[in-house]
Amino acid sequence: MYWGLSLVKDQKGKQRVSTGISPSGPIHLGNLREILTGDIIYKSLVLSEKDASFIYLCDDIDPLRKVYPFLPESYSAHVGKPLRDIPAPAGDLAYSEYFLAPFLKSIETLDVKPEVIRTGQLYAEGKFGEIIDLMIKRKEEIQNILQNISGRELEKRWFPYNPKCSKCGRINSAIPYEYSDGFVYYKCACGYEGKSDIYKDQGKLPWRLEWPAKWKILGVTIEPFGKDHGTQGGSYDTGKAISEIILNYPAPLPQMFERILLKGKGAMHSSTGVNIPATEILDFAPPEIVRYMMARVPPSRHIEFDPEAGFLNLMDEFERMIRLGSENKLDEDQRVLLRISATEKSMDDLPDYRHLTTLVQIYSKDEQIKNVLQRSGKRYSDEILALRIKQARFWVDHYAPESSKFMVSGETAPVSLNELEKKVICNFLENIDSMEGWNADLIHEAAREAIGRSSLTPSEGFVALYKAIIGKERGPRIGFFLESMERNKVKRRLSFICGVQNE
RNA sequence: GGGCCCAUAGCUCAGCUAGGUAGAGCAUCUGGCUUUUAACCAGAGGGUCAGGGGUUCGAAUCCCCUUGGGCCCGCCA
User: Fold this and answer.
1) Each residue of A156-198: pLDDT tens digit?
2) Pairing outcome for strands A260-262 and A303-305
3) Across-strand partners of A188?
4) Which of A92, A210, A383, A450 is 20 to 30 A from A123 in CA distance terms?
5) Which residues fall within 8 angstroms of residue A303, CB to CB, at 6 or more apart?
6) CATH says A419-498 is which class?
7) Please, what is the angle between helix A458-470 and helix A419-433, to 10°?
């Protein structure tokens, strides 16, 4: 059974899948796994005909933890303040919204459409109030749970609520010393003394308490999370205990997921530069393939993403699957996988990606590529075609390995050909000289004829031609390829090889 | 110190919570076709299922140990 279906099959009643993130910087492919795993689970619930909803929490009240490498040093003044209170590196938005906006755009492209909830807003609306009150009142009990399960020693003055200093704006430096009637009294490191209303966004719960609180407030029943939360004694373990003992709410069904590694580089991490921003993935990868990449393996396995040759193979694999799907040749699991990988857009008749990576290297204009594709009788919508061409070009420019790229050799570039191969080139040159026009069919016919007059097999003959023109043994179909080049340029190159003087 | 994941063909992986004669795609090789596509069709070679032990009539599959690789926690989220 498909892993998503297997995960949800025993879930009873109303289901709510939750995912989220602190929008503390640009979101990369690795982060995308969380929300896509959530979406796959959500869609698995829908396929299982269960009553399901899907939410995405933007933890915009989390403090800025440090000056990240991508930030100017001036941000040191903002460390400790909620992300929603900090100005963005550019523009007028808040810091959190600045990083959230492109991410939301990306996931929409990926056909992920959760209800987006800002945690700061939940605090502002007082949604956490009752639970904060309860947690403060049962502080000792919670403290014991945390200490027993996580094994860590909590400080004597530990308090289950972090007030935000109304003077300096930091949420990590105010020390509470008293609680009464919904107000937490604190003294901040900046010297200010004040109080926070727990029914407003004047402070927050620490993570290990906030997580179970969210489960109860939002009615979460399933939640995927990274292995960092899932370790023994980690925040899921303590969250589960707090949820069940203190809040009397069953902990959601957990689904841990492994990380995404960049082939040859290791784990993706925003700070090390080993990552591909989520937005950039979509510059070259159709959204279906990104979904497919996450959906095809169970979350417990790490994914080694190879944006170079491996990506093209993945595209092939997926396109093959679509083809088999339309021929009704897939087994049940594969059908589910395909269904879950699909976006709302139709996947019928998509131009072959690998083919496009060749075409974009031959032709510079979309119009020419469109003509070539139409010659084969296929029609694609301009919008889809333009997008795919753009993606293929991006891939060729940024990720294509040498074996997938070609460059036309200089007119006098050295090339090693044996006598038989040279003969093919010279025959071909003669044919070109006497050709009536310059189009793909004629060129192709001329090439076949030239090879026919030699003692080489057709495939050997084509190797000779490719070696002469691009210095490699294989290449794009010769007719269309040469048609896109200037006739005289081709002639000069072939003449050089044959040693024929040009007039 | 603790925890999780992984190891199956040259490469990427499936098969593992129904234990029953090792699979797919790509790559390679052979043959065919000889050109809308670096295409397509047919076939072939290629694996002590990391190693060892156990359970079993029977183990890639379940259990234990070992080795190797990766990651996470022991700050904060």
Assistant:
1) 888 999 999 999 999 989 999 999 999 999 999 999 999 999 9
2) parallel
3) A174
4) A92
5) A33, A258, A259, A260, A261, A293, A294, A297
6) mainly alpha
7) 80
- Which of the two residues, A329 and A313, has the higher pLDDT score? A313
Decide: A216 and A249 in contact? Cβ < 8 Å: yes
Across A236-252, b (16+ Cβ under 10 Å) vs e yields bbbbbbbbeebbebebb
How many Å does it take to go from CA A283 to C1' B9? 34
Buried b (16+ CB within 10 A) or exposed e, A1-23: ebbbbebbeebeeebbbbbbbbb
Give, in Å, how far the C1' of B19 lies from the CA of A315. 35
d(CA A367, C1' B28) / Å: 38
In whole angstroms, B72 C1' to A229 CA is: 8
Nucleotides in chain B near protein beta carbons (<7 Å): 2-6, 12-14, 25-26, 33-38, 70-77
Closest alpha carbon to C1' of B26, residue: A313
A90: exposed, middle or buried (C-beta count within 10 Å: 0-12, 13-18, 19+)? Answer: exposed
In this prediction the pTM is 0.89
Q: What's the Rg (C-alpha) of chain A?
A: 30
Distance CA A49 to C1' B45 in A: 48
Q: Identify nearest nucleotide to residue A403 by CA to C1′ distance.
A: B38
State phi, psi for A217 to the nearest 5 degrees: -60, -40
Q: Which CATH number among 2.60.40.1240, 3.10.105.10, 3.30.70.890, 3.40.50.620 corresponds to the domain A3-128+209-260?
A: 3.40.50.620
User: Which residues have C-beta within 8 Å of that of residue A307, sequence separation ≥ 6?
Assistant: A262, A263, A276, A284, A395, A398, A399
Cβ-contact A463, A473 below 8 angstroms: yes
Q: Which residues, in sequence order, are bridge partners of residue A55?
A: A18, A115
- Are the beta carbons of A254 and A237 closer than 8 angstroms? no
Q: What sign has the CA pseudo-torsion A239, A240, A242, A243?
A: positive
* Six-digit token string for A369: 């590529």
Nucleotide nearest to A445 (CA to C1'): B35
Q: What is the ipTM of this complex?
A: 0.83
Which nucleotide lies at the shortest CA–C1' distance from A376?
A: B36
Q: Give the C-alpha separation, A33 to A94, whole Å.
A: 25
Nearest nucleotide to the CA of A6, by C1', is B17
